[in-house]
């Protein structure tokens, strides 16, 4: 007798929902066109991209002009962190993150340490796996340019108090980055 398989990695990937499949199928089977082209096909696809951009902006509470679509979370985190580091290095070379961040954040921090001389402070989590506001506040220094703390942990599901952490980081004059890829569409962000 075969035992039923229990799949517990839905944060990494899931079966394609029928509604998503139905929405995407036209683009996979016949709709085409470079959305940056001025011809009929391009204009039609630009409308679809614009609509998608507006939907995502509404979901996360920003303007459509603030969005940059990338290939996924890894590219997004690298662009954000390396971009902030490059742009703000003149203000300082200190980054704060936690010991339980997604590997892409930790690897990006290692890269910035090795190639650009950044210092990284890794804060501990509490007994529930959360990053506390107090831990972040204690790690901030005059040369801290940004803090990167995930909203929801991809392995444990722990939700960090990002609003409170962000307030402390902003009051310090640093930039707040959060990887919310495990939260979007699941809980309010």
UniProtKB/TrEMBL annotation:
Pfam families on file: Aminotran_5 (PF00266)
Cofactor: pyridoxal 5'-phosphate
SUPFAM superfamilies documented for this protein: PLP-dependent transferases
InterPro entries found in the cross-reference section: Aminotrans_V_dom, PyrdxlP-dep_Trfase, PyrdxlP-dep_Trfase_major
Domain Aminotransferase class V: 6-189
Gene3D superfamilies referenced in this protein's UniProt entry, alphabetically: Type I PLP-dependent aspartate aminotransferase-like (Major domain) (3.40.640.10)
Family affiliation: Belongs to the class-V pyridoxal-phosphate-dependent aminotransferase family. NifS/IscS subfamily.
Name this polypeptide is given: Aminotransferase class V domain-containing protein
